[in-house]
UniProtKB/TrEMBL annotation:
Domain annotation HIT: ranges: 7-114
Catalytic residue list: 101 (tele-amp-histidine intermediate)
A GO molecular-function annotation: catalytic activity
Lineage: Bacteria, Bacillati, Bacillota, Clostridia, Lachnospirales
Residues spanned by motif Histidine triad motif: 99-103
Protein name: HIT family protein
Length: 115
């Protein structure tokens, strides 16, 4: 299911161009528009799910396996010192776009990012 009013549905499915780091049948990984650090990326499923609670188990597994692989790639390519894998669900938890996504935030010693 896609939601025609959802910006991440449009981006994930190529309806709006984005800085894409990776794409497969189920996901697109893009650079965040307001990066917390250099290389901050978002994993977006191509199907619309509001949050992790709405995510089918198979998609959940694929999404977090992809997060693990992308985190490893970031360490290798960006030479960062660490990576935050963060995921917000609900406004109270800091979610602002209600299409499930995983943040991959490369961390650099002393970067001071308040993640
Ligand atoms: P949330 O607060 O929902 O966990 O994260 C939403 C993230 O999406 C924020 O980090 C924000 O900068 C990013 N974002 C919002 N709109 C866009 C957009 O149109 N394009 C991209 N690439 N990132 C976006
Ligand atoms: Zn969506």
């Amino acid at each position: 299911m896609k939601d025609e009013n959802c910006i991440f549905c449009k981006i994930a499915n190529g309806g709006i161009p984005s800085a894409t780091l990776y794409e497969d049948e189920d996901f697109r990984v893009i650079l965040d528009l307001g990066p917390a650090t250099r290389g901050h990326a978002l994993i977006l499923p191509k199907e619309h799910y509001a949050n992790v609670i709405a995510l089918p188990e198979e998609v959940t597994a694929k999404a977090f396996i992809l997060a693990k692989k992308m985190a490893a790639k970031m360490m290798e390519v960006l030479h960062c010192d660490g990576v935050n894998v963060v995921q917000n669900n609900g406004e109270a938890a800091g979610q602002t776009v209600f299409h499930f996504h995983i943040h991959l935030i490369p961390r650099y010693e002393g970067d001071g990012a308040g993640v």
